Amino acid sequence: MKTGRAALLAETLRRTSLGAALGLALLGAPAPARADVVIGVAVPRSGAYVAGGEQVLRGIEAAARDANAKGGLDGQTIVLDVQDDACDSNTAVAVANHYVRANVRLVVGHVCSNASIAASEVYAQNGVLMITAASVASRLTDRGFPTVFRVCGRDDDQARLSAAVLAERFRDRKIALIQDLTPAARNLAAATKDNLNRIGINEALSVAFQPSDADDAALADRLKAAGIEVVYYGGDAAEMGRLVRISAERGFKPQWFGTSAIATPDFARIAGSASNGVLMTFYLDPSRQPAAANVVKAFKAEGVDPTGSTIYGYAALQALVAAGNFAHTDDPRRLAATLHAERFDLVLGTVGFDSKGDVTAQGYVLYVWKDGAFTPAGK
């Protein structure tokens, strides 16, 4: 067993591409490590959501390196067992069962909500602690599993903000709510519609479509013909980027409104200049906050822009380490109780977790894309 864990550590170190600067970001006096503690990391490394998975993984690896430089988790060296769930529910369940069989009791993951919801059933049944950096579905924590946590926001909070912005800024405009049949887009569109309708505003058009270049062109033509002025879409960065670009090429340039799913440079790269002015709801950007300054500086020293979910990946593992060091344990149930009961100084600021496992950090903010980057949109 020791040889296997050593091999895992060697592989983790081999995969790491950020240099020694990250290890020095939060460097303190290292305590001697007693043993290894293996932490599962479940992210998409294949499929449509690779970009988000890479952001989260980059943050987790940096947090593990910084923690190990200070003595690890309660004196144990952190070793990462990284698995690809492809943001697929069935694959996520297989990954969860892998961790159970391997006696991995702490997991940072998954990224996509459908994967997290499916895998969390396995974790809850087997006493594994799971903390996600990016899964926003309210159902994930509403079920009340005591060992399931998240450091990101909830989709119902995001939908409320989206509806409020649409009502305040575009009340007299023709609004379309579109979704691409994926669970995340469908849920966000439905929740935004419910909130918007409760405010007293009805959308001019609601459309579900199957993404492809041909369907994107047909959808753009349909929206244009209907006189749509504002388009809300909860889909992923690649698809929205393509849709925005194709629409602009066909002379359709509405006010586009996306969600946290497009908080990656891939969106602007795919959409090109048509990305300018696109609105987006996303969590409070911790890379701009004082609590994350040292970590952000270390990333940038290596030429890495820690945007999107990178810092949230860092925060997820950092929370596990903080709770383990506070309670002097790596037992998942005791760690879970500590996360629920205490507050911790993380890159997100000083935060805790409520009875459902949701983080108490500030929620969603409105951003606008310009010249390949997003910044707060203001009032």
Automatic annotation (TrEMBL):
Supply the alphabetized keyword list.
Amino-acid transport, Signal, Transport
Positions the record marks as coiled coil are: none
What residue intervals traverse the membrane? none
Start and end residues of each Leucine-binding protein domain = 37-372
**Where does the secretion signal sit in this chain?**
1-35
- Alphabetized CDD domains for the sequence: PBP1_ABC_LIVBP-like
A Pfam family annotated for this UniProt entry: Peripla_BP_6
Q: A GO biological process this protein is involved in?
A: amino acid transport
To which protein family does this belong? Answer: Belongs to the leucine-binding protein family.
Write the protein's name: Leu/Ile/Val/Thr-binding protein
Its ancestry begins with: Bacteria, Pseudomonadati, Pseudomonadota, Alphaproteobacteria, Hyphomicrobiales
